[in-house]
UniProtKB/TrEMBL annotation:
TM region(s), chain numbering: none
Record InterPro entries: MttB-like_sf (IPR038601), MTTB_MeTrfase (IPR010426)
A single GO molecular function term of this UniProt record: methyltransferase activity
Gene3D superfamilies: Trimethylamine methyltransferase-like (3.20.20.480)
Assigned keywords, A-Z: Methyltransferase, Transferase
Family: Belongs to the trimethylamine methyltransferase family.
Keyword Hydrolase: no
Keyword Mitochondrion set for record: no
GO terms classed as biological process: methanogenesis; methylation
Source domain of life: Bacteria
Organism of origin: Roseovarius albus
Record's protein name: Trimethylamine methyltransferase (MTTB)
């Protein structure tokens, strides 16, 4: 059995190395509806605008055509927004620490990633939840490094054993950088914390200015507090990221029925306006700066007001958000996989499955919060992470669809088989397509019932525990040179064990 799973894992890795699939076939909004919601988003910015724009950004906005209402709200004429959208970066290059592991964001190529700010970890051994730590953050992102269908890793948990904001930001960025050579993302408590982390990244890459040339980390910034109010500290972080050359993922995450309208169409219009407000300000600061719109329409359970991440409404709203941004030609991030289940059970499986599948099929460039998360993104699990990686391999395969390549339909071969051996198992086409047309689970079980019982009746959770142990038994990633790590530890308050 171990050999069978290893073979499946190897075959999955062969296909995972291919170019990410192109989504966009699923369109929850009709053409007319897309245009109506986009028009409504533009109208919101022109008529209602945003509040609490920091003074320096307000001045930049006014110099570039924005208008201030009598109540102080900053509005953006449609022509101004359209001009900024035209200038905006349409393809964002996110290299990894190892450049070859980088991704290009934009145009509907689907990438799967982590994300969120969970505050608890599910312990596999006990089934209990506890506060997340810096070590947990490192271990989760180290697992990501070994997962074939996860393309990037935005900080999934908060290191609650770090209390000082600067120390927390430095250690979060360091742990992420050390754990994986894939592209990473992080967040910042204060604008002043961006510069020392960019300096650390420069040092890791070999010297001043190196990170600007190879920006392997993006800043995830919630620039707006819905409804339609700018977040002052986050706007400062956004300005610092632009100044220092750190790509942005700017986030609007209103909750329908609470901080955005209960109608999904209204929530989408407001969320689009909030996303575009951030994009407009970024492009007023520096036209074409690499910025990805994290348009995350969250959903309320209107019986309680609590956020529900695994609902059918969340699935279709985030797919629609991806469709809107794809129509505008802007790099997109949406949220999916935010199951409300507390363990990796059947509920987690079906909620993660349809939310991620719809977002991917709609052409989301990045899908945040999608793997490893439980309990409405309040908890994380390494075991759930590897299960979700297995699932995402199948979802990404489904996005590819049915491909009519040369030789896909070979009548001569069909005639030869039906008049000969009567099966296609040994044909040259079958052997050639085994690792091209098909993907195989590394944790999912395809044995017969009797074989499964005879091999120990292991559940997917059992196999996930084994897989995490296998990853953790291997040498840690070594892309960060040891001498550079020692120098960083000597200069900064790094708390992650060496």
């Amino acid at each position: 059995m171990r050999r069978k799973r290893q073979s499946g894992k190897t075959l999955q890795r062969v296909q995972a190395a291919a170019k990410p699939p192109l989504g966009g076939r699923f369109m929850p909004l009709g053409d007319g509806d897309v245009l109506r919601i986009i028009d409504a988003g533009f109208d919101i910015l022109e008529r209602i605008g945003v509040a609490n724009v920091p003074e320096d950004l307000r001045e930049i906005a006014l110099e570039n055509g924005a208008v201030v209402r009598a109540d102080g709200r900053v509005t953006f004429p449609r022509s101004v927004v359209e001009d900024c959208c035209a200038k905006a970066c349409k393809r964002v290059e996110l290299p990894g620490f190892s450049v070859e592991r980088g991704i290009e964001v934009g145009g509907g190529r689907v990438h799967i990633g982590t994300g969120g700010a969970a505050v608890q970890m599910l312990e596999a051994e006990t089934g209990e939840f506890r506060d997340s730590t810096l070590t947990d953050l490192f271990e989760l992102m180290r697992v990501v490094d070994a997962c074939d269908s996860i393309h990037y890793s935005l900080r999934p948990v908060v290191a609650r054993d770090m209390t000082d904001p600067l120390t927390l930001d430095i250690n979060t960025a360091f742990a992420a950088m050390k754990a994986t050579s894939k592209p990473i993302g992080t967040s910042f408590f204060e604008p002043e914390n961006v510069a020392p982390i960019v300096e650390m990244f420069d040092a890791a890459l070999g010297g001043e200015g190196a990170f600007r040339k190879q920006p392997f980390c993006f800043a995830s910034v919630c620039h707006v507090v819905p409804p339609l109010t700018m977040a002052e500290e986050a706007c400062g972080v956004m300005q610092e990221a632009v100044r220092l050359g750190m790509p942005l993922q700017i986030c609007s995450a209103a909750q329908a029925g609470a901080t955005s309208p209960a109608s999904l169409a209204g929530a989408l219009a407001q969320g689009l306006a909030e996303s575009l407000a951030g994009l407009v300000l970024v492009n007023m600061m520096q036209p074409g700066f690499p910025s990805i719109l994290a348009f995350l329409p969250f959903i309320s359970d209107l019986r309680t007001g609590a956020m529900t991440g695994g609902s059918g409404e969340a699935a279709v709203a985030n797919a629609a958000a991806a469709q809107l941004l794809l129509h505008l030609g802007l790099p997109s991030t949406v949220s999916a996989g935010m199951t409300d289940a507390k363990t990796a059970d059947t509920q987690a499986g079906y909620e993660k499955g349809y939310t991620i599948a719809l977002a991917a099929q709609a052409g989301a460039d990045m899908i945040n919060l999608s793997v490893g998360m439980l309990g409405s993104i309040m908890a994380a699990s390494k075991e759930a992470l590897v299960i979700d990686d297995d699932m995402c391999g199948a979802i990404l395969r489904s996005v590819r669809g049915v491909e009519l390549f040369d030789g896909a339909i070979d009548l001569d071969m069909i005639e030869q088989v039906v008049t000969g051996e009567g099966h296609f198992l040994g044909t040259a086409q079958t052997l050639d397509l085994m690792t091209k047309e098909y993907i195989y689970p590394s944790l999912g079980d395809r044995q017969s019932v009797n074989d499964w019982i005879e091999s120990g009746s292991h559940t997917i959770w059992d196999r996930a525990v084994e897989r995490v142990a296998e990853i953790e038994s291997q040498p840690a990633p070594s892309h960060l040179p040891k001498d550079i790590e020692v120098a960083i530890r000597a200069r900064l308050p790094i708390h992650l064990k060496a």
